[in-house]
Write a structure and sequence with these properties.
PepSY-ass_TM, single chain, PepSY, 458 residues, transmembrane helix, alpha+beta, 50% helix, two-stranded antiparallel ribbon, 8-stranded antiparallel β-sheet, PepSY domain-containing protein, elongated, Nuclear Transport Factor 2, Chain: A
Length: 458
C-alpha cells in the first residue's frame, strides 16, 4: 500500500514538474514574442525586398541605371565620363564605379559643397549624363537602412543584437512547446477553421517549425552588423596588422584612413587601413590619372562592377574594390597613384578563418551565395516569418482575457525558472546586450509576480 502511494506521489510530482516547466517555457516564449515579433515582421519584409535589390533598382531607376547597348561602339574613356559628371554636378570626383554589364551605366560619385555626395550616372558609350541621386539614394539603399535600423540612428542598431538573441530564444522555447508529447494534431497539420483559435495556434506552430532554422540562421548571420557584439568581434578578428592578415600586406607605408571611409566594403575589411602612395623625388610628381589606373585594374582581372576610389591628397591611393555574389571573386587592390604599382592585392582567400566563415554567412544572409535559389528560398522564409508572426498575434488576441495582457500562468514551483537563469548566463557571456535584456526582463517578471501576489493577499 505504501509502495503504491509512493509511486503515485512520484508520478504526481513528475507531472507537476513537467507542467511547471511547460508553464515557465510558455511564459518566456510569450515575452520573447512580445518583444521580437514586431522586429521580425519588419526585418522579414525589408529583408525579403532587399534580396532582390539589383532587380528592383534596375526597374525603379531604369532611366539612370540602364542604357541602350551601342552596337560596335567602344566606351568612352573613364576620364571623359568623370569630366562630363563634373560639368553636370560641380564638385570633386571621389569614386568611379564600373558598369556591371554592357547594358549598365557608369556611376561617378561627386562630393559637393552644398548637397554632400551625389551619384552621377553616365552612359558609357557616349559620355552623356543621365541624371543623379544622393549617394546611396536608391530605393533599395533606403530599404537597407530601414532593415539595419541605421535610418533611426546609431543607438537603434543595438536593438538588432537584442532582437537577434531573443529570436533564438523564441525558436528554442517554441520548439519545446511544439513537441508532440503524444498529440495527434497541430504537429505538422492544421486543425479547425480561421474563426477558431486552434487554427491560428496550429498555423503559428507548424509554420514556426519549418521556418525556425531560418530564423536562427538569419539571427546569427545578422549579428556581425550589430552595434556592440558585431563591432567588438570585428575589432578582435580584424584589428591587427591594420586589418589585413599577416603576409598579405606588403612592406609599404600605411595611412590612418580606413577602407570603410572610401565606400562600401565587407565586414572583414572594416578595420583595414589604406596604404600610402610615395611621391617620386621630382619637383612636380604627376599622378598616373584615372585612365591608366583603370587599365591596371582591368589587367589585374577584377570582376565587372568594381568601384575605384580616387586618391585623396598627395599620399592617397587608387583603391579598386569589388564584392560580387561569388565570394571567391571578392577583391581589393590599392595602387600607388604615381607609379600605378599594386601596393596590396587581397581576395576572399586571404581573410582569416573567422572572417571567411562570417563573410560566407553574410553573403548567404543577403541572398547572394547560391544565386536565384538563395533569393527564392530566403524570400519564402521571410514570407513564412510574417505568416507565423501574424498567426501569433491573432492567436494571442483570441486567447487573452478581456482587459488583460494574457501573460501565461506562473509555474507552481519557482525552481522551474532555473532554465531561464541558465539561458541568461549563457546569453550574457556570448551576447552582452542580450544577457542584459534578459536580466531586465527577469527583474520585471519577478516584480510583476510580487505585485500580483500582494494584490491577491490584499
Amino acid at each position: 500500500m505504501t509502495d503504491v502511494s509512493l509511486g503515485r506521489t512520484k508520478d504526481g510530482a513528475a507531472a507537476r514538474s513537467a507542467t511547471d516547466l511547460y508553464r515557465a517555457v510558455w511564459r518566456w516564449h510569450f515575452y520573447a514574442g512580445l518583444l521580437v515579433l514586431p522586429f521580425l515582421v519588419s526585418l522579414a519584409i525589408t529583408g525579403g525586398l532587399y534580396l532582390f535589390r539589383d532587380e528592383i533598382d534596375a526597374i525603379v531607376h531604369a532611366d539612370l541605371k540602364r542604357v541602350e547597348i551601342a552596337e560596335g561602339a567602344a566606351p568612352v574613356a573613364p576620364s571623359a565620363m568623370v569630366a562630363a559628371a563634373l560639368r553636370a554636378v560641380p564638385g570633386t570626383a571621389v569614386k568611379y564605379t564600373d558598369p556591371t554589364d554592357p547594358g549598365a551605366s557608369a556611376e561617378i560619385t561627386v562630393a559637393t559643397a552644398e548637397k554632400g555626395k551625389l551619384a552621377v550616372y553616365v552612359d558609357p558609350y557616349d559620355g552623356k549624363v543621365l541624371g543623379s541621386l544622393p549617394d546611396r539614394g536608391t530605393v533599395m539603399w533606403t530599404i537597407r537602412t530601414l532593415h539595419s535600423l541605421k535610418y533611426f540612428g546609431t543607438t537603434a542598431r543595438t536593438l538588432i543584437e537584442i532582437a537577434g538573441g531573443w529570436a533564438i530564444l523564441l525558436v528554442g522555447t517554441g520548439l519545446y512547446l511544439w513537441w508532440p508529447r503524444g498529440k495527434g494534431g497541430g504537429v505538422v497539420t492544421l486543425r479547425g477553421a480561421p474563426r477558431n483559435r486552434i487554427f491560428w495556434r496550429d498555423l503559428h506552430a507548424v509554420t514556426g517549425l519549418f521556418v525556425g532554422g531560418f530564423i536562427v540562421f538569419l539571427a546569427v548571420t545578422g549579428m556581425p552588423w550589430s552595434g556592440v557584439w558585431g563591432g567588438k568581434v570585428n575589432e578582435w578578428a580584424n584589428g591587427s596588422n591594420f586589418g589585413y592578415p599577416s603576409g598579405v600586406r606588403t612592406d609599404v607605408p600605411m595611412s590612418d584612413v580606413k577602407l570603410a571611409e572610401t565606400g562600401q566594403t565587407t565586414w572583414s575589411l572594416e578595420q583595414a587601413k589604406l596604404p600610402a602612395s610615395t611621391a617620386p623625388a621630382t619637383a612636380d610628381p604627376t599622378p598616373i590619372g584615372i585612365d591608366r589606373a583603370i587599365a591596371v585594374v582591368e589587367k589585374l582581372g577584377l570582376h565587372r562592377g568594381y568601384a575605384l576610389a580616387l586618391p585623396a591628397g598627395a599620399t592617397g591611393v587608387y583603391t579598386a574594390s569589388v564584392y560580387p555574389d561569388d565570394l571567391s571573386q571578392q577583391r581589393v587592390v590599392h595602387l600607388d597613384q604615381y607609379s600605378g604599382k599594386p601596393l596590396l592585392d587581397m581576395s576572399y582567400a586571404d581573410y582569416g578563418p573567422l572572417g571567411r566563415a562570417l563573410e560566407w554567412g553574410i553573403n548567404t544572409h543577403m541572398g547572394q551565395e547560391f544565386g536565384l535559389l538563395n533569393q527564392i528560398v530566403l524570400a519564402l522564409a521571410c514570407l513564412a516569418i510574417v505568416v507565423m508572426s501574424v498567426a501569433a498575434g491573432v492567436m494571442w488576441w483570441k486567447r487573452r482575457p478581456k482587459g488583460s495582457l494574457g501573460v501565461p500562468p506562473l509555474p507552481a514551483d519557482a525552481r522551474a525558472f532555473r532554465g531561464v537563469i541558465a539561458i541568461l548566463i549563457v546569453g550574457g557571456i556570448v551576447f552582452p546586450l542580450v544577457g542584459l535584456s534578459l536580466l531586465v526582463m527577469l527583474v520585471l517578471d519577478v516584480g510583476f509576480i510580487r505585485t500580483m501576489a500582494r494584490s491577491t493577499v490584499g
